[in-house]
Recover the amino acids of this structure.
């Protein structure tokens, strides 16, 4: 194998071996010879080989094992999502429990995509999640505080994307959007920050950003849109939500400085949810702000940034929930 496919492997440990993945996958190890990197087949995993391979991977002197992205995508489709759907069909859990079970799957898919050099095809493994969540949010009452309490507030990009996606479902419900529009809003939220995939690690850890860092950060909406546009399977509503999620209602945002209704509805909603989740989450340079203080700041301190009618709809929904 040539080193040109190096970037399509994800490192794994014995903990990745899944007893329920009947179809199994190929385990690779990395070989570096004369400066040339190759990925060589180590073993074919099936559940029958679980004990033997777990022992070898735990105790062997080879530390680096890998799965190819094609198998990783199959794993999410054939194992993780099948297990999720079967569990929901069997247990018929309440709406919040459905969200609680679905949320880590979303974070895991987004996390693997963002952390490793894996194809955007990985994102398509989430295609069936709107089918699970959109009818749920349209037909059931899920209070915003309960939804927020189920989400994590760590500084990871996948957590922020998953949160904006989940909160988008709530917003779609209060605006009584169609299931198709709700689906677009959800996907646009999930993908809002995928343009940060190739950020240098230093940007995530710095407390003081340089003008060069800001220039990189301001490119992420366009970069995310390009990734999705190249996939040719997402609607214009999704693409606009991704590229417009940092546009402010008063025209002070980026990348275009669009104002008021020139920003799509999805873009205006995502601006509110992006700020809400960022402020209520931990960042490496500050502690999370309490939810009530965040909402007050959004309403009074940063009001010009947001569509006032959307803010009114959001706050009105709290008094009725
Ligand atoms: Fe962003």
């Amino acid at each position: 194998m040539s080193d040109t496919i190096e970037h399509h492997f994800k490192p794994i440990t014995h903990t990745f071996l899944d007893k329920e993945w009947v179809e199994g996958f190929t385990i690779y190890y990395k070989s570096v010879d004369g400066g040339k990197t190759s990925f060589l087949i180590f073993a074919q995993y099936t559940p029958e080989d679980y004990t033997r391979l777990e022992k070898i991977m735990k105790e062997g002197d080879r530390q680096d094992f890998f799965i190819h992205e094609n198998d990783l995508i199959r794993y999410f489709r054939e194992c993780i999502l099948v297990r999720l759907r079967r569990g929901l069909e069997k247990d018929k859990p309440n709406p919040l429990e459905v969200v609680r079970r679905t949320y880590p799957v979303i974070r895991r898919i987004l996390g693997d995509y963002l952390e490793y050099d894996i194809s955007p095809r990985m994102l398509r493994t989430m295609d069936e999640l709107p089918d699970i969540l959109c009818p749920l949010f349209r037909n059931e009452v899920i209070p915003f505080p309960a939804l927020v309490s189920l989400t994590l507030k760590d500084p990871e990009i996948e957590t922020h994307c998953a949160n904006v996606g989940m909160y988008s479902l709530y917003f779609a419900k209060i605006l009584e959007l169609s299931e198709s529009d709700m689906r677009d809003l959800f996907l646009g939220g999930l993908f809002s920050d995928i343009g940060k995939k190739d950020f240098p690690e230093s940007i995530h850890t710095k407390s003081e950003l340089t003008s060069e860092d800001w220039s990189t950060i301001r490119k992420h909406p366009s970069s995310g849109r390009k990734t999705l546009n190249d996939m040719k399977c997402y609607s214009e509503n999704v693409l606009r939500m991704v590229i417009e999620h940092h546009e402010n209602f008063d025209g002070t945002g980026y990348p275009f400085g669009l104002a008021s209704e020139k920003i799509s509805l999805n873009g205006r909603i995502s601006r509110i949810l992006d700020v809400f989740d960022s402020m209520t989450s931990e960042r490496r340079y500050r502690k999370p702000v309490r939810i009530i203080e965040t909402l007050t700041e959004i309403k009074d301190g940063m009001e010009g940034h947001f569509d006032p009618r959307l803010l009114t709809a959001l706050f009105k929904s709290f008094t009725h929930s």
Q: What stands out?
A: The pocket of fe (ii) ion is lined by residues 192-193, 220, 245-246, 274 (CB under 6 Å). Residues 69-91 form the longest helix (23 residues).
